[in-house]
Amino acid sequence: MPxxxxxxxxxxxxxxxxxxKAPREQIDRFVGGYNTVQRELAASRPDxxxxxTSEHWANFFLDHIGAxxxxxxESFEGPIEPWLRVNKAVVPGNPKLAQAILHHCYENGFELxxxxxxxxxxxSMVPLKxxxxxxxxxxxxxxxxxxxxxxxxxxxxxxxxxVLGSLLEQxxxxxxxxxxxxxSHDPGEINHGFIDKQFDAEFLSRFEEGDLDRLSAYSDxxxxxxxxxxxxxxxWICLAGIMAKHKPRVVVYEAVEPWATGVGIVSYAPLAxxxxxxxxxxxxxxxxxxxxxxxxxxxxxxxxxxxHCVPRQPVSxxxxxxxxxxxxxxxxxLLRLQFDVPGDLAPTLGVRSDPHPKQVRRHCIARxxxxxxxxxxxxxxxxxLVDFAVETLHDFRGNTGRPHKFKPTLDDxxxxxxxxxxxxxxxxxx
Length: 430
Hints:
The protein is α/β, with parallel strands linked by helices. The chain contains 16 helices and 12 strands.
C-alpha cells in the first residue's frame, strides 16, 4: 500500500501555550488549516504516521547527537513541557515499521541512529494534538538535528526523503507522512520575534512548485538568516523528497507576531501527480469520442484510475473492490465529456448504447447518486475520487445537454480537497 497522506505543519509552542495572544482572525485561519488536514488525514485512514520532527534538547545534548534518529519504541510519552497546554499522552509506536526503515536506510547509504526510548516535546505534540487528537494512531518519529553543528545539509535531507519514499510506497501498511517545524523564527536569539515574510513566501512557493533543486540547495547560512528555528525546514525538505512525484498545496500561512513565528501548513491531499495524463481518443476499443469532442482531454490521475477500474462485465460481488465509485465517476464522464457509450460497455453501466438520450441521462444521474452515497459511507479513503465525481455531477445537472469542451485539470481535484465527507453528503442530498 503506498503512502496515503502527507502534510507539513508548524509546531511553534505558542500555537497552544499562548494561543489567545494572537489576533482572532489569524487563530481561526491557522487552526482552521490544521482542522482541514485533520479531516484529510482521517479520510485516508492511515495505519501509522512517519513523523519528521526536530530535536529541542529533549532527548540529546551537545555531548551526544547525530544527524537523524529514528524511534523504534513501543510507545512515546509527551509533552515534556508542562506549560504547553497539551494533555499528557502515551503515543503508540510501531517498532516493526521503524526497523524496516532503519534497515532500508542502511542498505541505501543512510546510517540512522536509533533509540528505543524517546520523549516528545512541542515539536511532535503540537501537530499531533491537531491532526490526531485521540493519539491513537501509531507514530514512528524521525528526529532531525537542527541545533548542533555539524548538521545534515538540505541536499542530504532531500536524498534521505527519496530513500524513504522508495520504501514507504511499497509498504504493506497505509502510511501517512507528517513533517513539522518552521517557518521563519529565531527563538531565544538576538532576533527573537523577527519573522521573515519574504523568505517564508519564497520557500512555500518553491515547495508548492516542487523545485527540488532549489530546496536541496538551501545552505545553513540561508536558513539561519531567517532565524535559527528556520533550520527545522530540513524536515519539510525531506518530505519533499519522499513526495517528489506528488503535488502539494499551501493550506495556510500566517506571520503571527505573538507566537514569534511564521506558521504554515502544506498538504498533499488529494495525492495528485505533478504531471498530467492524457487519455487517448481510443483505448482498446473501450470508447470513442463524438465529432463534437474530437480532441485529447487532459484528466486527473484519479480519472485515469476510473478508466481502468470499470470492468467489462456488470459489477457484482462485495463493494470493497472499488468498482462502484469508479463506475459512478465514469458514467458522469461519459456524459459530461459527450462520449458515446459503446455497446460492450453499456451492460456495465446499465444504460443503452445510444448517445445519451433523456432516459439514459435520468438513469445515470439516479445510479450515480446511489453509488456516490455508498462511496461516501464505505470508501472514505476515496474522498478525493468522490469529490471530483460530485463536482462533475453538480456541473452536469446544471447543464442543458449542449455539448461543449470540458477539460478537467489537476486543479479541479485540489480546489475542494479540504471538504469533509459531511459537506459532500449534504450537497448530494440538496
